[in-house]
Specification:
Length: 407
């Protein structure tokens, strides 16, 4: 129901530093993230009916308002405001890699300080703290088991030997804070929305690798992958929506709950890839989310993908399609769209154009949300060789972890 203006915001990351390299190299791995800036919320005054929830029942289920009301009305009633605030945030993580025979054990601790220029009296009148201190600790344990079948050879399925890699793992994690996340307006999911409490993840990642390419150009690929995991959360954790999620690299970004998750990919051929996932909510005893799709590389310069997503909590299904093309040696374009069968209309359409320079890629994007009637513009600046770069966007949604254009 809102997006966030950054007027501006500066971020700085450091990954995998070795603070003890002079005395005990490799004993400690250190990650740090810092950000500071001025932020402001922009609310959407579009009614729930215009956003695709034409009945009071569906609008209440999805947004907590009647069909003729807007999300902005509810946000203002809850004490959220559109005026600017200043925020600084600093995150520090230390990991100690240990080996116990074939098992790798990774204890880790995380500390985080977030400073605001206000205590949000209208949103959380009982909370008078301006500075949030958050801390977490946990341990990961994992091992690797593998088996190679050198006799397998199938021209039909393009399989030449199979290496089966099994990686079972367990993570136990706990975090606490002086300000509960429910007492903070959420400007960023990965700042105000971080979890607290206790969580346990147990799962098995499996990979079947094979060789493709032919004599003189053999290469290994991940032919089939399968992830299965069970996640449990303590009663003092706050859910952040009906779909449970676990993020191994940063457990605080996970959506707590008790759920079972399965995800798989299949590189069917050199040009066709398949993928699917499902999340079953054990607490609610229902399927929370399912998705499946296919990606096709029609040639070295053109690819398409199609996917279907079902959100169990809303009983809604969406169809997605993307196309990307290398237009010239320097220009690359892409278009993506999402279709809502229940409305018989497109929900979102986005287009992107990028130009490659010797050391940087410069691009622009435009997207249109057909439900809310909002148009977003973006500027992309990405150094060559980096997956992400500088993105300047207007009217875009709040940050969503794991999302990517045409991904």
């Amino acid at each position: 129901g809102y997006n966030v203006d950054r007027l501006p915001e500066v971020r700085y990351w450091r990954i995998a530093d070795d603070p003890l390299r002079r005395w005990l190299p490799g004993w400690v791995v250190y990650h740090s993230e810092h950000r500071a800036g001025q932020l402001a919320m922009n609310f959407s005054d579009v009614s729930a009916a215009s956003m695709g929830y034409p009945t009071d029942r569906r609008a209440q289920q999805a947004l907590g308002i009647d069909a003729d009301e807007s999300v902005a009305d509810r946000l203002r009633t809850a004490g959220l405001q559109e005026k600017s605030i200043w925020r600084g945030d600093s995150r520090h993580e230390f990991i100690v890699p240990l080996d116990a025979g074939p098992i790798r054990v990774l204890p880790f601790v995380v500390g985080r300080l977030t400073v605001y220029d206000t205590d949000f009296p209208a949103y959380a009148p009982a909370e008078d703290e301006r500075n949030r201190v958050w801390g977490g600790a946990g341990v990961r344990a994992t091992t690797t088991i593998q088996h190679v079948n050198s006799s397998l050879d199938s021209a039909l399925f393009d399989l030449h030997q199979i290496r089966h890699i099994i990686e079972p793992g367990v993570t136990i994690w706990h975090a606490d804070t002086n300000i509960d996340r429910t007492n903070l307006p959420e400007y960023d999911r990965d700042v105000e929305g971080i979890a607290e409490g206790s969580m346990i993840r147990a799962g098995v990642d499996q990979t079947w690798q094979t060789k493709r390419g032919g004599p003189g150009r053999w290469r290994s690929i991940d032919w089939l992958t399968l992830r299965t995991e069970w996640v449990w959360s303590s009663s003092d954790t706050d859910e952040h929506g009906p779909i449970g999620r676990w993020y191994e690299d940063k457990p605080e970004l996970s959506n707590p709950g008790e759920f079972f998750h399965i995800a798989s990919t299949l590189q069917l051929s050199e040009v066709v890839g398949l993928g699917a996932e499902t999340t079953h909510d054990i607490d609610r005893r229902k399927n929370a989310y399912s998705a499946g799709g296919i990606a096709v590389r029609h040639g070295p310069d053109f690819s398409t993908s199609f996917a279907v997503r079902h959100v169990g909590e809303l009983s809604s299904t969406f169809l997605d399609a993307t196309a990307a093309a290398q237009l010239t040696s320097k220009y690359r374009g892409a278009i993506a769209m999402s279709y809502d069968p229940s409305r018989s209309d497109f929900q979102r359409i986005e287009a992107r154009l990028e130009r490659a320079f010797p050391n940087v890629i410069l691009g622009t994007s435009i997207s249109y949300n057909n439900i809310s009637g909002e148009t977003s513009f973006g500027i992309i600046l990405r150094p060559t060789g980096f997956g992400e770069g500088l993105n300047v966007r207007g009217g875009d949604d709040a940050g969503r972890r794991g999302s990517g254009f045409g991904g």
